[in-house]
Amino acid sequence: MIEIDGSQGEGGGQVLRTSLTLSALTSEPVRISNIRENRPRPGLANQHLTVLKAIGEVSQGAFTGDNVGSMEVVFKPGEVKGGRYRFDIGTAGSISLVLQSLIPILAMANEPSNVVVTGGTDVKWSPPIDYVRNVHLPLLKEIGVDAGIEIVQRGFYPKGGGEVVLTVEPTPGITPLSPTERRRVDKIRGKAFCWNLPEHIIGRMANEVRKGFVPAGIDVDITKEHVIERGGTGCGIVLWTDGIGSNSLGEPKIRAEDVGNVALEGMMSELKQKDGGLWTKASVDIHTADQLIVYLGVAGGGITCREMTSHTRTNIAVAEKMLGGRFVVEETDGNWTIRGP
Questions:
Q1: pLDDT of 63-83, one tens digit each?
Q2: Is residue 72 part of a domain?
Q3: Does residue 336 form part of some domain?
Q4: Residue where a domain terminates, one of 80, 112, 143
Q5: Which CATH number is 240's domain given?
């Protein structure tokens, strides 16, 4: 049984998720102790418990420590099985993080999978669901992982209530990731959404983004989504272009223009001026990098990113312990290259 210290590195729920996902993929039992030990509320929260139970169900595994507040979990995976599943986080906990844990496992299943997850679609400290659909999934498609996401209803903090349907097709094998060259950016796509709030908020968020990109000769295509009289209350904007993304969520007393500007600045931080235009600095953005460590671990290959976040470093350390191999991490020309074992 592999022993994982849940307080290492960044010390959050990502240690748990990565450990459980790789345990299911490798059929290696794992014990995770000191879960979120240094957090204000240590141990498993509802979101983490949902991940544990979801991975346990799709891999027909057995676990102990499956209760809110638990500081230690023992997981013994079985055989991964596709099919139809439904998981309810019960709070506004992140649906995106549950899906990211399940996708690589279900890709190795014996049949297609249809998974309904309820909770938060657009909440702090996690990728918005549009980011997963438009940045993460296209990258996975390139390496043989065929997954799709349908947003039935958005869920915001504190009520949650969002619903997403994930579909995953079986794959004969995940191919290695390949770090792409820096690419010239000609178009920025996006989604600006607003539920049960005035419609003008959408335009103000989107216009702030356009003000930053149009003078640079960049085409900006932002889809608008305005919904009233159902679901919760919230707004936000997600931007993407070829493996690079950024986002910003609205909050009470925060101007719509400021929400748009945060997303603009996030995207601009991943780009650089060159030859009279804007180019990507790396093959993926800094947040996508940590989400791809599992795939680098099981299939090899490499990615480049402009910065190594604490989440990425922690994910690498966990993957090395789970897989028994060493990642290669190098800094060259202002970028970091990460290669799987």
A1: 999 899 999 999 999 999 999
A2: yes
A3: no
A4: 80
A5: 3.30.360.20
Reported as type and span, the H/E element at residue 294 is helix 293-299
The answer as to whether 39 is a domain residue is yes
Structural domains of the chain, count: 2
Task: Please indicate, yes or no, if residue 110 is contained in any of the structural domains.
Answer: no
- pLDDT (tens digit, 9 = 90+) per residue, 11-61? 889 999 999 999 999 999 999 999 999 888 899 998 899 999 999 999 999
Percentage of the chain beyond pLDDT 90 is 87
Domain extent for 37: 1-80
Question: Does the reported pTM lie above 0.90?
Answer: yes
CB atoms within 10 A of CB 217: 11
Which of 29, 61, 80 represents a domain boundary (last residue)? 80
Check which CATH number belongs to the domain holding 46 and give it: 3.30.110
Rounded Cα gap, residues 266 and 128, in angstroms: 14
Residue recorded with tokens 């139970």: 53
The predicted pLDDT at position 107 comes to: 97
Residues 6+ apart with CB under 8 A from 125: 94
The active-site residue out of 48, 136, 287, 311 is: 311
Mean pLDDT of the chain: 95
Catalytic site includes residue 311: yes
Q: Is the pLDDT of residue 274 over 90?
A: no
